[in-house]
Amino acid sequence: MRSISSSQKENILSMASNGLPTCHIASKLGLGKSTVFRVLQNLLPDHPIPSAGCPTKLSSTDQHCILLQIASEKVSNAVQATTHINSIIPDAVSS
């Protein structure tokens, strides 16, 4: 395993303190996500553990709205549901 230079560690700390997620830091520095996470855990033990995956674009209210549309048969497929939800939320979703 290749060791991480002190300048890379400083870059990791700087980017993490600016709020960049581990995967973006790893991508920008050409390192693995687990390497970046390990460095952060060693240098900042209280650093929060990132959640896996992408954050949801739909709030629980939006999800409930879609379910009501389906239950009331106002939409009958995913394309119609997507069109409806894209009309009420700012960030478009895809089907």
Describe this structure in words.
With 95 residues, the protein is mainly α. The chain is built from 5 helices and no strands. It has helices spanning 6-17, 22-29, 33-43, 60-71, 78-86.
Helix content: 40-55%
Got a strand count? 0
Q: What is the oligomeric state here?
A: single chain
Shape: elongated
**Number of distinct helices:** 5
Largest sheet: none
SSE series: HHHHH
Mean pLDDT: 84
Helix/strand structural class: mainly alpha
Low-confidence stretches: none
Distance between the termini: 42 Å
Q: Estimate the strand proportion.
A: under 5%
Estimated radius of gyration: 20 Å
Describe this structure in a few short sentences.
The protein is mainly alpha-helical. The chain has five helices and no strands.
Name some characteristics of this structure:
95 residues; mainly alpha; 5 helices; 55% helix
